[in-house]
TrEMBL record:
Keywords: Iron, Iron-sulfur, Metal-binding, Pyridoxal phosphate, Transferase. This is cysteine desulfurase. Gene3D superfamilies: 1.10.260.50, Aspartate Aminotransferase, domain 1, Type I PLP-dependent aspartate aminotransferase-like (Major domain). It catalyses: (sulfur carrier)-H + L-cysteine = (sulfur carrier)-SH + L-alanine.
Length: 377
């Protein structure tokens, strides 16, 4: 059975060119970039080149890029690093954030911080006006994701940035799901901190970036060496960082074409369901092109996912980091309420490398067949 992988929002397969870059670096770039000898300087050049490419990808300066081991560390560094450095104890976020943000905020609450969790409407979007109304004299941080990982809703980051532009509040956005899909200019968005992870855009796992605007206060989480301008101790993973840069280069060069293809995939998928008279609705609005979250009438999500898996289709419900949990999606609960049917019958299909119109049509056909079969029970 040829599997059809429709869970690219959880993680993505590495691009062949990225694998080649990674493999080559593993074998040849073995020096410590902090060493001053020739071997170390060779590793430093690879690191510097990757840093420059990734900085340019979001219109930042090279020294504003901090390499991390992924999106979770980047989010944690942004939140705990800001809290440790700034006076005040109020933080604003939303109820639909990734757990890397939510659980970090919950820990700060246990330590005496006051956190405001802004609601979203049924479209899955927060309002910039609500951010403005929630601001207080002691607000130190606003953390709002750029694109939601479950329903794909694009948040009004530029509008929120305008609200915060003339304040002393640090503005962080988790762009893990959006980087490589949406064009990002940190200056136009007016963000101070921005998190990115390589494995969402066909790069390796275990490497990410936190953008830190020059002058933004931030305390390190890790102590040891003086890597990353004393902001993140630990010898840099040069091969993975090199591969990350290659993945970003490919993603940015193909963004427009890729997104048009993903929108076409959405149309194909929904057209098949319509022709098969499947009763469904799309969750969220103004969604990123690679995420399609559907509420399908008459099904229970756990048995539906098992049947899809047996049919050779990999999809998911909720976020990847809570896979296997029977707890309802906190995003769908925020959108519809705890008793809504959507929290029991919604599934996320997400697109990426290796898919074609034919495989999308096949997946939609199987989805229709399974939904009709389970709805009869």
């Amino acid at each position: 059975m040829n599997r059809i992988y429709l869970d690219h929002a959880a993680t993505s397969p590495m691009h062949p060119e990225v694998i080649a870059t990674f493999s080559e670096a593993l074998g040849s770039v073995y020096g410590n970039p902090s060493s001053i000898h020739t071997t170390g300087r060779a590793a430093r050049k690879v690191l510097d080149d990757a840093r420059k490419l990734l900085a340019n990808s979001i219109h930042a300066d090279d020294n504003e890029i901090i390499f991390t081991n992924g999106g979770t560390e980047a989010d944690n560094l942004a939140i705990f690093g800001t809290a440790a450095k700034k006076e005040g104890n109020h933080i604003i976020t939303t109820v639909i954030e990734h757990h890397a943000v939510l659980h970090a905020c919950e820990k700060l609450e246990r330590e005496g911080y006051d956190v405001t969790y802004l609601p979203v409407g049924e479209n899955g979007s927060v309002r910039a006006e609500d951010v403005k109304n929630a601001l207080r004299d002691d607000t130190i941080l606003v953390s709002i994701m750029m694109g939601n990982n479950e329903v794909g809703t694009i948040q009004p980051i530029a509008e929120i940035g305008e609200v915060l532009k003339d304040t002393d509040v640090t503005f962080h956005t988790d762009a893990v799901q959006a980087f490589g899909i949406l064009p990002i200019d940190v200056n136009k968005l007016n963000v101070d901190l921005l998190s990115v992870s390589a494995h969402k855009l066909n790069g390796p796992k275990g490497v990410g970036v936190l953008y830190q605007r020059k002058g933004t206060a931030l305390s390190p989480l890790l102590y040891g060496g003086e890597q990353e301008r004393k902001r993140r101790a630990g010898t840099e993973n040069v091969p993975a960082i090199s591969a990350f840069a290659k993945a970003a280069e490919i993603a940015l060069a193909t963004m427009e074409e890729k997104n048009a293809t993903y929108e076409q995939f959405k149309t194909i998928f929904k057209d098949v369901l319509d022709k098969q008279n499947v009763d469904y609705k799309e969750n969220g609005s103004n969604s990123m092109p690679h995420i399609l979250n559907l509420s399908i009438s008459g099904i229970e999500i756990e048995s539906f996912l098992i049947n899809l898996d047996l049919a050779g289709i990999s999809a998911s419900s909720g976020s990847a980091c809570t896979a296997g949990s029977i707890d309802p999606s906190h995003v769908l609960v925020a959108m519809y309420g705890e008793k809504a049917t959507e929290i029991r019958n919604s599934i996320r299909f997400s697109f990426g490398l290796g898919l074609t119109s034919e495989t999308i049509e096949q997946a939609a056909e199987k989805t229709a067949q399974i939904s009709q079969r389970l709805a009869l029970k």
